[in-house]
Amino acid sequence: MNIYVIGFMGSGKSTTGRKIASSLRWNFVDTDQLIEKQDGLSVSELFALRGEKYFREAEKKALVKASAGSRTVVACGGGTPCSAENIDIMKKTGVILYLRLPVATLVSRLEKSKNVRPLLQGETDMIARVQDLLALRTEWYEQADIIADNQNSTVEELAGRLADLIRSKGAFI
Ligand code: S3P
Can you give the pTM of this predicted structure? Predict the structure, then answer.
């Protein structure tokens, strides 16, 4: 059983995922880091040199690898849950937590971030771009078992809710 942390770019999946893992004493992996290790290139280099289609294949491979673990918190890339195949892997092997933030918060966090995401590079109207992409992805993100809104819950509360959910499925925490 694993925990998958999903959400838009800039929603804090890795930071929150890492904290949940340490609170539950579980392992932690980040799919973008797995991809970078797998391919020996950064996410930006992969997009630039091989294109998005290649990246999505590498992302699926990384998810399959992460899903084979147990007691692992998996911080996913923003696009990882956005395919039937990928979200099915997550549902079959764990529980899913969606970190939901309003567009304005996402944009302000992304504009401050040193990590310029390939899908947002050179974008002049960030609000419109984030709004559009989020609208396309909401149907995937909202399939999560738990939706955490606007950072209203502490990591301990989230970890507690996840632990209850995992136990209710008859698995061990
Ligand atoms: C992507 C999100 C990125 C990374 C890649 C594509 C996306 O991860 O996987 O740039 O499609 O939303 P973060 O969500 O960690 O920024």
Answer: 0.98
